[in-house]
Structure formats: C-alpha cells, structure tokens
Design brief:
The chain has a single domain, classed as Tubulin/FtsZ, GTPase domain (Rossmann fold, 3-Layer(aba) Sandwich). Helices cover 41% and strands 17% of the residues. The protein contains eleven helices and ten strands. It has a ten-stranded mixed beta sheet, sandwiched between helices. Helix 3 packs across helix 4, helix 4 packs parallel to helix 5 and helix 5 crosses helix 10. The longest helix has 25 residues. The radius of gyration is 31 Å and the shape is elongated.
Length: 350
C-alpha cells in the first residue's frame, strides 16, 4: 500500500458544529469527509469543506435533541446517499459529534447504528464532553446521549474527548487529529516488529472507549503518562479493563510491564518498531463512568437551582403591601349625613 493510499479507507462524518470543526484537519490531509449541520450559518463557518450537507427544513437545533431527531427522520435517505457518494470504498467511518449540543448529540447514536447496519462498515465514534463551565442543557444532553451510546452493540472504538482537559477546545481537535493520523498512517516496521494495517483495523473495530497518545522520538519515557493522564480524553476508569493495545515505538525494543501495570493486561498487544514517533492506542476500555456521573451531578445541581429560582419568581413582587398613594391624606371625621329638604335649608335664612 502506497504512503497515501490508506486515506481512502477511512472516512469522517462531522455532525453539528464540533463535527465540522474536528473534520477540518482530516479533510486538509486528504481523508474523505462530509460535514453535516442543521444550521446554514454554522456550515458557512466551515469555509474550506468540500462536501457540506444541510438537513432540509433545519435552521439550527439550539441544543434541542428532539428537534434534531425529527430532522434526521426527514433527511435520513439523503444523508446516507451523501455518505455513499462522497466516501466510496471506505471500510471505517468516524462519526464526530458533540455530546452537549443539539444537532450532533441528537443524531449521533442513531446515525452510528444505521450506518453500521446499512453500509456494513466499521463505525467509530468521536465525541466531546462539556467543560465544567457549561450549563444544565449541555450536561443533560450529554447524559441522554451516553444512555443511548452504551446500548449500541454495533460500533467500534469510541474516542471521548473532554473539554475540561484544555482551555482551548479547538486545540483539542488539533491534538486528536495529530494522534489519529499518526496511527492511521502506520509508518513503522522492522525485523523486531510491525503494527500492520489489519491490527490497526482490529483496534478501531473493538467496542468500548479508546485513548490515543503520540510523542516525539526523544519522549518515549513519557508515553505512559501521556496515555493515562496528561491527555485530551475523559479520565480512564481505574478498573484496568482493556482489550487490546497497539504501540509503535521509535526504537527496536519495547518494555510493556509498566504499561500493563498502569492500564491493565490486554487480550493482545500489537507492537511496531522503528516508527517515526511513539504512538499508543488503548482499545476496549469501559466508558468514563466517573466523569459522566460528575456531569450528571452537575446537571442535577443546576436543575435544582433553576427550579428553585423559577419558584421564587412566582411569588409576589413585595413582601408586604403599603398604600403609598394615600399615605399623606389627612383623616377627616366622618359626619353623619342627614337627609334635608330644600325647605329645611331655607328655614336657616328666615
């Protein structure tokens, strides 16, 4: 396989604003991409995208997942046709969408299952969690999406990025591109070992959370920290569940004892040597339950605060009442009125 021929094997579908942003680098690198959105304005911000798909009758979903699902129902056949025509021959598709938004969050799980079952290709999911500076709707959407995602039994690797890991969310997108492109490029191999294309595809087709790391030639000693802690992904659960590990080393030997001690013992490890950089992927881990429950807790806290504030707003404007208009009116004695006739008044003058 030539140096760039592998690009045709992997497609990227970006749904919503996050999806459009994260596919940008992949399209620039030559991967087949489609950017889909319910908002024409958001599509216009992805200026250099070659393949843009607008959900007909959509004008944005303002974080409304129900509205997003309705638009998907109206546009499903057109979206599938767009994927087929713009990504012919791909064997793996990465569907990218934010967990917190509207268009992407509402469609992600459904599109992933439909593409997997209708097109019969490997589906990987790329999503991102909201930072701790977000609000109730973002947290609630994330919880609802992952309730759908955990039920899927037809998708491969799930890359869960986390906006809480970096102040610049667009930088997270760039880092992820660097990680994944290094894996897909598969520049490695010597007599001491080669991580080949079938092993890469095995990693991508393995269900569960996946994490990637890439480091320069002189930073191999920092790889474990990069894969477990200092990264852009949701925190790894401490249960040490991992199905497969893929690793490409710049050297000819790779010691794995410390890695296994940190992340767990996999079913198998695929090892490549003489790579241009140090790359590692963990596949088949459990979803980030601790982080997701933290988001759920923030949603509940925000919901209680909002509900309390709304209840307070229903009370009267003032705690007591005061008759300001008549405050300075003098009290006058009440006179008993007697009925008098005109003759009675006249008598006063006789």
């Amino acid at each position: 396989m030539s140096n760039k021929e592998y690009l045709k094997m992997y497609g990227f579908l970006g749904i919503g604003q996050f999806g459009g942003n994260i596919t940008r680098k992949f399209e620039e690198a030559g991967y087949p991409c489609v950017v889909a959105n319910s908002s024409q304005e958001d599509l216009q911000t992805v200026k250099n995208a070659k393949n843009k798909f607008h959900f007909k009758n959509g004008s944005g979903c303002h974080k409304n997942r129900k509205k997003s699902k309705q638009l998907l129902q109206q546009n499903l056949d057109a979206l599938l046709n767009e994927i087929k025509s713009k990504m012919p021959g791909v064997s793996t598709i990465f569907i990218c969408a934010s967990s917190a938004g509207g268009t992407g969050s509402g469609m992600l799980a459904a599109v992933a299952k439909i593409v997997s079952q209708i097109l019969h290709i490997t589906v990987c999911i790329v999503t991102v969690l909201p930072s701790n500076a977000e609000n109730f709707q973002s947290y609630a959407n994330t919880v609802e999406l992952f309730q759908e995602l955990e039920k899927l039994d037809c998708v491969g690797a799930m890359f869960v990025l986390d906006n809480a890991k970096h102040n610049d969310k667009l930088k997270i997108n760039d880092i992820f591109f660097t990680h994944l492109d290094a894996l897909l490029a598969n520049v490695n191999g010597s007599d001491y070992g080669c991580l080949d294309r079938s092993e890469i595809n095995q990693l991508l087709s393995t269900s569960g959370m996946a994490v990637l790391a890439k480091l320069g030639k002189d930073k191999s000693a920092m790889l474990i920290s990069a894969i477990t802690d200092k990264n852009i992904y949701a925190p790894i659960e401490p249960n040490k569940v991992v199905k497969y590990i893929g690793i490409m080393s710049t050297g000819k030997q790779q010691t794995l004892d410390e890695l296994y001690l940190s992340v767990g013992m996999p079913i198998d490890t695929y090892i490549g040597t003489d790579s241009t950089s140090n790359v590692c992927m963990l596949a088949g881990m459990t979803l980030p339950k601790t982080r997701l429950n933290e988001i759920k807790s923030m949603a509940q806290t925000n919901a209680n605060t909002i509900k309390k504030n709304m209840e307070t707003a229903k009370s009267e404007l003032f705690d007591d009442s005061m008759d300001f208009l008549n405050m300075f009116e003098e009290d006058k004695p009440v006179k008993e009125e007697k009925k008098v006739s005109s003759w009675d008044v006249l008598k006063e003058f006789l």
